[in-house]
Amino acid sequence: MRRVKVVARRRLPRTRQFVLGVLAVLAAATLIGMTIAVRVDATADARVSAGADGRAFAVDVVPKLLSYDFDTAEAHFAEVLDELGGDFRGQFEEVGRTVIVPSAVERKVVTSADVLESAVVDSGTDDAVILLFLNQSTTSAESPETKLDGSRVRVHVERSGGRWLITELAPV
């Protein structure tokens, strides 16, 4: 009988070491998992925040971009360029200068855009894709009665240098 007790005593410390080792591994895995979860949560919060900020920016700026009066169209288009970035800025400047402004002056166009609804389609931590539902009312010398058009546009905004810029605007 003594021999059995001695064997049991020898196994107890090894079992205890094994259990403590398993508990240490589980504690480390839990700590790593919690750290990853906190980081993922922080990134998700940053994406949600960027989406909300980008959406507010797009809702504010896109109507300004699409609303103009033939009397002040040239100055208007020069002014809104500060809200644009990337290749889109150059494209918008070129189209505004060569197509929109001359046509607006010639036809005496006055147009006003309003955002009816908006939604964040996708967002990163420093960019967002926004869908805007717009109404645009237009009058011109050839069509003095107000014409109302509804449209949807996909807007890509990016944060650059601490401020938001529109880098893409496309009809959907």
Describe, in plain words, how this protein is organized in 3D.
There is one protein chain. The protein is an alpha+beta fold and 172 residues long. The protein has 3 helices and 5 strands; from the N terminus they run H-E-H-H-E-E-E-E.
Secondary structure layout:
Layout: H1 2-66, E1 68-69, H2 73-80, H3 86-107, E2 110-123, E3 127-139, E4 147-160, E5 163-171
Antiparallel strand pairs: 1-2, 2-3, 3-4, 4-5
Helix pairs in contact: 2-3
Major β-sheet profile: 5 strands, antiparallel
Tally of DSSP β-strands: 5
Q: Uncertain runs with pLDDT below 50, 5 residues or more? A: none
Order of helices and strands: HEHHEEEE
Strand content: 25-35%
Please state how the strands of the largest beta sheet are arranged side by side.
1-2-3-4-5
From the spread of the alpha carbons, the general shape counts as: rod-shaped
- Give the overall pLDDT as a whole number: 89
Helix content: 55-70%
Briefly note the structural class of the backbone. alpha+beta
End-to-end distance, in Å?
Answer: 87 Å
Number of helices: 3
Gyration radius, to the nearest Å? Answer: 30 Å
